[in-house]
Specification:
The protein has 315 residues and is of the alpha/beta class. The chain is built from twelve helices and nine strands. The longest helix has 29 residues.
Length: 315
């Protein structure tokens, strides 16, 4: 039998709930040992918590070293579950209780000891900063477009900032690629992804990071994880249009959109697929979204099969 403990993680403390009592411990080895001390010897222990960035690293590392099982709940899943049980209030103590109750959604046979991949965390941190730099650069470009051409000094200042940020972003991209390439499998996967017409270096890096993040996902699951799965909303006499879910993967969708635009011209499979949809009267944006899903599936197949892209054979 499994004993579950829900844990809400913050920088200095862990708020815990074991089904009977709420208690707080420090977010360090002493606190982790106190949690273990409250477990029952005749029951297997499982911790349930959210992956709150670097604040969760020490706990994950401790679980890995001491072979303690845990279930790490995604932040969105935790929020959705709290809504489903009508939990409107939000405090650290309440969040711990909600996470404890999440055990009802778990299959005990699938619980496992978590592992902390330090290299992937290094990559994730750099990717987050890279994405933020990219957003700021785009904001500055928008400001230039909105600036009077006569105000040359302001435009020069904005361009200097763009060049500086672009240089920093390029360095981060180099670091991400270097960290990924420390693994021969990852290096090969990057090369294979770039054999797909429309997929360039940045798109290949973004795709590989997502594929590595969900190593056991199926093609259809990856489409859903990237928010490209179509959803239809209908109620009574209301008939809504089919749209993509837009769940997660925002940064990848942006890169994949541009890659798909290129692929509709230069990728044989995507071009034929896209043009066939257009010829059947499909709106251009709907056809492009369908092409995005197809390009993602192709990239995922290349990654899974560990082979380069195969073009359509001409008769």
């Amino acid at each position: 039998m499994v004993k579950y403990i829900g844990i809400d993680i913050s920088k200095a403390t862990l708020d815990c709930y074991d089904g009977k009592n709420s208690f707080q411990v420090s977010n360090d080895t002493h606190g982790f040992q106190e949690i273990i001390g409250r477990s029952e010897k005749d029951r297997e222990l499982c911790l349930i918590f959210e992956p709150t960035g670097i604040y969760a690293h020490a706990l994950i590392d401790y679980c890995q070293k001491h072979r303690i099982k845990a279930f790490i709940v995604g932040s969105k899943e935790a929020r959705d579950y709290a809504r489903s049980i009508k939990q409107r209030s939000k405090t650290d103590r309440i969040d711990a209780k909600v996470l404890y109750r999440y055990q009802s959604q778990l299959d005990a046979s699938r619980l496992s000891v978590p592992s902390l991949d330090h290299r992937m965390w290094q990559i994730t941190r750099r990717r987050n900063v890279y994405e933020k730099y990219s957003q700021i650069i785009q904001t500055l470009r928008n400001l230039i477009e909105a600036t009077d051409e006569e105000d040359k000094e302001l435009i020069r200042s904005l361009n200097r900032q763009i060049r500086s940020l672009q240089k920093a972003a390029d360095l981060l991209l180099d670091e991400i690629e270097e960290l990924l390439s420390q693994s021969s499998e990852n290096r090969q996967a990057l090369n294979h992804l770039q054999t797909i017409p429309g997929i360039g270096r940045q798109s290949a890096l973004a795709l590989l990071l997502e594929f590595l993040r969900y190593p056991h996902a199926r093609s259809s699951e990856m489409v859903a994880l990237m928010g490209l799965d179509p959803v239809l909303r209908e109620s009574g006499v209301f008939r809504g249009k089919s749209r993509i879910s837009k769940q997660g993967g925002t940064h990848l969708r942006k890169k994949l959109f541009m890659a798909t635009v290129v692929a509709t011209r230069y990728n044989d499979r995507i071009k034929v697929f896209y043009e066939r949809l257009i010829s059947k009267g499909k709106p251009k944006m709907s056809a492009l979204l369908a092409a995005m899903r197809k390009l993602l599936r192709i990239a995922f197949a290349v990654f899974k099969n560990q082979t380069p892209y195969q073009a359509i054979e001409r008769q």
